[in-house]
Every structure is written in C-alpha cells, then in structure tokens.
C-alpha cells in the first residue's frame, strides 16, 4: 500500500502570534493527522483562500482529497503545488500515486521518476515507482525498485508484501507463497490467535484442525481447493471457518467435516492454520497447483431451477460490477447489452448490491432475468451457475465461483489485474474452464468488448448449430 507525504507545520511556541494562514494550516494539519478528512479539506481550503500560493497547503490538500477518493482534484492540487515548488520530491511522489489511482500510468511513472531523481535516498519514493512500473508490466524494473527499497529500510513490510505479490504475478509461486506470509506484518491484517497450537505441517495422525477464514469471498472460494490436501495429511476432523454467505457452499468441498461461521467461538481442536497459508505449507508451484474442477458445488438438495425463458436455447450468466476497492474492476452493463441482440439466448444477472439497479436504469428488464431475489448465498449462486452454458463476469467473487464449479467462464480483466490472473495470457491455471479477456490499457473496456463480441457471436453460432436436430 503506497502512502502519501504531507507536510506538518513547524512547531510554534505561540501559534496565536503567527499569521492567520499559518494558524489555519496548523489546525487543518491537526485534523488531517487525526483522520478528520472533511475538516482537514475545509481547513486547507480556508488556508488557501488566505494565501493562494501556499505550496504546502496545496500538497496537503491533494493528500486529503486522495484519501477521500477525489483523485483528479488531488492531481490538480499537486500540480499547483509543484508550479510553486518544482523541486519537492514528496509532491511529485504524491501526484504519481494519484495519477496511478486514475489509471494514468505513464504520467504516474514520470512523476515518480522525478521524485526519485530529486531524492534518491527515500525508500518510499522508490517503492512507489516500483508499484507503477509493475502496473505497466515492467516487472524487472519494478523488482529492482522493490529490492532497493527493502535494502534501504529495515522491516519495510508494505514493500516486502508487494514484492511477494509480484513473484506471484509472474508465476513464481514457490517464492511468492513463501513471502505471502509478510501479510501478517501489515497493519490491516494482523495474525489471529486461537487457544490451540499452530499446525507445523507434519502428518496430523488423526488430530483435528481448524482452518480459519481470511480476506474476501473470492479468496476463500479460490483457496478451498487446498482443503482436501489437509485431509490427505492425516487430519481426523477438518473444521473450516468462513463468512456466513459461504457456509453451505464450502461444506461441499471434499475433506470438510464441519463448518464454522466466522466470529463464532471455535470448537476445541488440536491445531489451527490459516487457509491462505496452505499453498506455502504444501510447497505449491505452478506445476503442482491443484486445478481439477469442480471442487465445490451446490448442496445435493437445493431445489434451485433457473427461471424459464421462452425460446431460449442457451443460458448465459452475467456480472458487470463489484467492489470499488482496492481497485474498481467494474464494467458497464451497457457493454453486455450489445450482445443481447441474438435470439435464442437468455441472460441471467447474478449482480448484487446497488448496481443491480442498472438493469432498470438502462431499460434491460426484458433482456435480463434478475436472479438477485432468488439468491440468498453462494450455494444458491452455484446451483444456478451449474445450469448455465456460459458465465461472463468481471474479476469478482462470482468469477471464482464459476471457475470452481467448472462452468464455462469468460472473465473480463482490468489492465493491471490481480496477481492470480498472471500476465499476458488468456487461460487461467487456477480454473481450466476459464478464458481471460484483458484491457490493453487502463480503462479501455471498448477494446475488451471488441474481442468479446465476435467471440460470443461465434460461440452462439457454434452452439446453436450443434443443437440442431
């Protein structure tokens, strides 16, 4: 996670004796330090009203605006600050961070290189440069930056973590998963403790083990593939902790004996282990990655049948939006509507949350069957997906679900996609029934759909022909 550099006002023995703009700046900086961003922005604005050419206030305003997700406004503030003080490495680095957030990667790279040029002994500037170089696909340069920053600062955990993700991105799973353990040193993911020993990896000899939950729905679905290996290592009873929405789904994985909802008190077990550390424990490489699908599915008795659509010969599931953090991987429903002109194809939406309203907003109710009212958890989604001919989805938990149940899946990826999708390939070693479509440049969904649309029309024609009597 890359951080910004904001300027703290010089310590003053008597702040009341200072000019009004200095007093206001000090109050705004104090609000900023305490996380009161709205108050900080208002304070910086008043400071700049009093003194429009105050470079530090402009820089800090940019930092606060970026924290609020107002990236373009942040960039404008950084540019104003740099016009006044062009040799401020912190402002250059801050601007590079904001430009990276909005996908202006080449500009971000220029800004970060300038920051490093001005202050080559600042590990955070070198680290930030490495992040944007990785986004640009310049992996060797990015790794050089990470290694330099790590050598300059002891226990640089954020950088150690991003180096681990970069090894995973290039398919070096042995080193990547070994160093994936750095996540426990990050402020946002402290290790959990249980009243039992941590498993040491040895044969369990019939002992019970708790595999505890981590991260998001998609991660849990993806990593569930490793649970059978724990059973094969001699576990007598395997208890898996998960979020409520995954409870019925993960219970279908081979080797699971008992499910536990996260935050409930776990039963007494002999040992515990983090689910997402299993690849390290088993020494997983690209060649040994378990990828037989399906490895999970709907409960045997589920009673979920796709709503019938008259005249439909092909059934296609779609997901176009997801969480906006840490990256917004959403693609507009408008693009999907472009392929809904073919007769005989029924489209089913698995979209959850506010973006499901896009169906009505765009007038697509007659083109799309909304499954949201019928889906209570991921087991329901799995039941519906198992009845589809194709799933087209952005990078989200439903993408992992579709791959895990063995559905034919097309996954649409942003330019700087997550490490698990690797680089420059259209297949996925984690999910053999999945095809990847990648943005050639940040934000360019049009180019993605120039690939998807003809591929879809060809697929429909082939499938329709094969179903002719």
Which helices and strands occur, and which strands form pairs?
Elements: H1 20-33, H2 37-50, H3 55-67, H4 71-84, H5 89-101, H6 105-118, H7 123-135, H8 139-152, H9 157-169, H10 173-179, E1 208-212, H11 217-223, H12 227-232, E2 237-242, H13 247-250, E3 258-261, E4 271-274, H14 278-281, E5 314-319, H15 333-337, E6 345-349, H16 358-361, E7 368-370, H17 378-385, E8 390-394, H18 397-404, E9 409-413, E10 434-438, H19 445-466
Parallel strand pairs: 1-2, 1-4, 2-3, 5-6, 5-8, 6-7, 8-9, 9-10
Description of the molecule:
The chain is an alpha/beta fold and 469 residues long. It has 3 domains: 15-185, Serine Threonine Protein Phosphatase 5, Tetratricopeptide repeat, CATH 1.25.40.10; 208-281, no CATH class; 314-464, Glycogen Phosphorylase B (Rossmann fold), CATH 3.40.50. The chain is 42% helix and 10% strand. It has 19 helices and 10 strands. The protein has helices at 20-33, 37-50, 55-67, 71-84, 89-101, 105-118, 123-135, 139-152, 157-169, 173-179, 217-223, 227-232, 247-250, 278-281, 333-337, 358-361, 378-385, 397-404, 445-466; strands at 208-212, 237-242, 258-261, 271-274, 314-319, 345-349, 368-370, 390-394, 409-413, 434-438. The strands form 2 sheets. The protein has a 6-stranded parallel β-sheet with strand order 7-6-5-8-9-10, with helices on both faces. It has a 4-stranded parallel β-sheet with strand order 3-2-1-4. Helix 13 (247-250) links the parallel strand 2 (237-242) and strand 3. Helix 5 packs antiparallel against helix 6, helix 8 runs antiparallel to helix 9 and helix 11 packs parallel to helix 18 (397-404). The longest helix has 22 residues, at 445-466. It starts with 19 loop residues before the first helix and ends with a helix. The mean pLDDT is 95.
């Amino acid at each position: 996670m890359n951080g910004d550099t904001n300027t703290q006002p010089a310590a003053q023995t008597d702040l009341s004796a200072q000019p009004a703009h200095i007093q206001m700046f000090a109050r705004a900086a104090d609000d900023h330090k305490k996380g009161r961003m709205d108050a900080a922005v208002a304070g910086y604005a008043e400071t700049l009203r009093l003194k429009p050419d105050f470079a530090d206030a402009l820089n800090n305003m940019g930092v606060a605006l970026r924290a609020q997700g107002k990236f373009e406004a942040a960039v404008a503030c950084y540019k104003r600050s740099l016009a006044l003080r062009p040799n401020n490495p912190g402002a250059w680095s801050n601007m590079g961070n904001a430009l990276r957030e909005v996908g202006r990667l080449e500009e971000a790279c220029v800004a970060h290189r300038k920051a490093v040029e001005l202050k080559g002994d600042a590990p955070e500037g070198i680290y930030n440069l490495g992040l944007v170089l990785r986004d640009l696909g310049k992996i060797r340069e990015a790794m050089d930056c990470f290694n330099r920053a790590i050598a300059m600062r002891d226990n640089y955990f954020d950088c150690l973590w991003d180096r681990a993700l970069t090894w995973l991105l290039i398919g070096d799973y042995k080193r990547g998963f070994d160093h994936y353990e750095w996540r426990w040193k990050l402020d946002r993911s402290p290790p959990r403790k249980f009243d039992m020993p941590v498993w040491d990896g040895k044969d369990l000899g019939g002992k019970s083990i708790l595999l505890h939950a981590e991260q998001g729905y998609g991660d849990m679905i993806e990593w569930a593939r490793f649970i059978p290996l724990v059973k094969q290592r001699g576990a007598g009873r395997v208890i898996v902790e998960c979020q409520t929405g995954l409870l019925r789904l993960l219970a279908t994985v081979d080797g699971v004996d008992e499910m536990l909802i996260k935050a409930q008190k776990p039963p007494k077990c002999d040992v515990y282990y983090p689910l997402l550390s299993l690849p390290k424990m088993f020494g997983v490489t690209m060649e040994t990655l378990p990828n037989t699908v399906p490895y999970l599915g709907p409960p045997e008795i589920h009673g979920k049948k796709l709503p019938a659509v008259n005249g439909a010969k092909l059934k296609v599931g779609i997901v176009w939006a997801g969480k906006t953090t840490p990256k917004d991987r959403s693609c507009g429903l408008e693009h999907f509507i472009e392929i809904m002109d073919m007769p005989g194809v029924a489209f089913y939406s698995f979209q959850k949350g506010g973006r499901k309203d896009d169906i009505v907003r765009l007038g697509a109710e007659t083109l799309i069957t909304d499954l949201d009212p019928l889906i209570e958890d991921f087991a329901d989604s799995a039941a519906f997906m198992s009845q589809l001919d194709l799933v087209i989805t952005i990078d989200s938990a439903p993408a992992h679900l579709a791959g895990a149940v063995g559905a034919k899946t097309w996954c649409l990826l942003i330019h700087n996609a997550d490490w698990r999708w690797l680089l420059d390939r259209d297949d996925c070693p984690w999910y053999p029934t999945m095809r990847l479509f990648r943005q050639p440049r940040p934000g360019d969904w049009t180019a993605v759909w120039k690939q998807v649309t003809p591929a879809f029309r060809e697929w429909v024609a082939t499938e329709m022909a094969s179903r002719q009597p």
